Amino acid sequence: MEERRRWEDMEMDCLVNIIRRLSLEDLALGVPFVCKGWQRASMEPLCWSILDFRDLDFMPWSDLTKKFTARYAVQRFSFSGFLKFALARSCGFAVELQFPLVFGASFQDLVFASEECPRLKTLVLPNILLADEPLIPQLVGKWKELEKLEMELKPSSFSEMVMQINLNCRRFSGLRMFGSIKKEDVKAIIKYLPKIKHLNLSKSYLQKEELVEIIKGCRELETLSVNNCIGFEADEEEVLRRASAIKNFENEGSKLFDESAYDMDECDPLNVLVI
C-alpha cells in the first residue's frame, strides 16, 4: 500500500490536464483545498482557459456565494468579483468566455473582459441594456481571434458590430442571436460575414425573402438554424430547395404567422416571437 502512487505525486502537466476539465466552482472551491500539489495545479492558467459562468448560481443565498465568501474571507460576494478572480487566474490565456444570461453580469464586466481576455475565440454575451448597445462594436473589435459569438437579442448596433468583426476577426465563423431580422440586417450579414459557416437565428421574426437572401449571399454556410421562427413556413418549397446545399439546415417549428395573432400586418414583429 505504501508503494501506491498518490495524486499529489502525479506529473504537474498530467494533473493540470485533468483538473482543467472541472467546473469553475470546483476549480475555485474544491481543488485548491485538497492539498498543496492540487493547489499549485489549480493556479495554472490552462485550468482557467474555459470560463463558463452560465450554470453557476450567483444569487446571494446560493451555496457558491456562501462557500466562496467563507473560504476566501471576502466581506461581499459579487459576480464582478468572481469574474476578476477567474480572469486573474487565466493570466490572459482565456479562449472561451460565457457570461451568465440571467443574473449578475454588467456591461462593465464585459468592458473589463475585453481588456483581460485578448485571446478569446468563443464569447457568449450577457444581457445588455439598450443604452449600452452602441458600445458593443468597439468591444467586439478588440478580440482579434474571435471565432464564435452568441447573444440573446440582436443589438441596435448590429450592422456596426458585424462590420467590426469583418475588420478585426479574420477567423470568425459562427453567430447566434434572435430578434427581428430586417432587410438591413440581412444586407449587413451578407456584406460583412459572407464566409460565415454557422448561423443560428432560431426564435426570430424572419420573413422568407430575407431567409432566401441569407442563403444566397452566404454560400459557405455549413449550419443554418432557423427553428421556431415567424415569417415563413417550415415546409416552404423554395426555402428547402435553396437550403439543400447546406450540410445542416434546421427549420423545425417555423410558421408564417403566429397563430395567436389575428392579423400579422398589425403585429409588432418582436411581439410575435416564439420564445
From TrEMBL:
Q: Which domain of life is it from?
A: Eukaryota
InterPro entries per UniProt: F-box-like_dom_sf, LRR_dom_sf
Its protein name is F-box/LRR-repeat protein
Originating species: Canna indica
